[in-house]
Amino acid sequence: MIQVKSVDHIKILVRDYKKSLKFYSKLMTFLGFKVFMKGKEYTGWKNKATRFFIAAINPKFKAVRFHEGMVGYHHVSFEMRNRKDVDAVGALLKKMKADIIDPPMEHYGGPMYATFFRDPDGMKLEVMYWGK
């Protein structure tokens, strides 16, 4: 029987590449990711287990906006080592004046501690920790 080892990478397409690059560069660096690929309209970061890319959308779709609930992904979640790391990301997001949906708090009766926020295109992201 085959088995997936991990999710290798996530790639999201963004409407304003320069604006998104500024946002994601701060976030991904803070999360411990390092740039490993860069082109004119794409950037990839990686840590020990995951690669994360942003790239410019096809210009013919510039007028189409992301809407949560439509076909496509719902959100991307980054698992943190502990609650303090979630709090630190929450503080960074506040400093960045990011669109914070939920500040760091317990969810689902307490097994998960997380903050939810949106990128410049309104796509939902999360940093979280399982456990007390």
Strand order of the largest sheet: 1-4-3-2
Strand content: 35-45%
Radius of gyration: 15 Å
Structural class: alpha/beta
Question: Can you give a write-up of this model?
Answer:
- This protein is of the alpha/beta class and 132 residues long.
- The protein has one domain (9-59, 74-130): Roll (2,3-Dihydroxybiphenyl 1,2-Dioxygenase, domain 1).
- It contains two helices and eight strands.
- It has helices spanning 17-30, 83-95; strands spanning 9-14, 34-39, 42-46, 51-56, 75-79, 99-107, 112-118, 124-130.
- The strands form two sheets. It has a four-stranded mixed β-sheet with strand order 1-4-3-2, covered by helices on one side. Strands 5-8-7-6 form a four-stranded mixed β-sheet.
- Strand 3 and strand 4 (51-56) form a beta hairpin.
- The protein is globular and about 45 Å long.
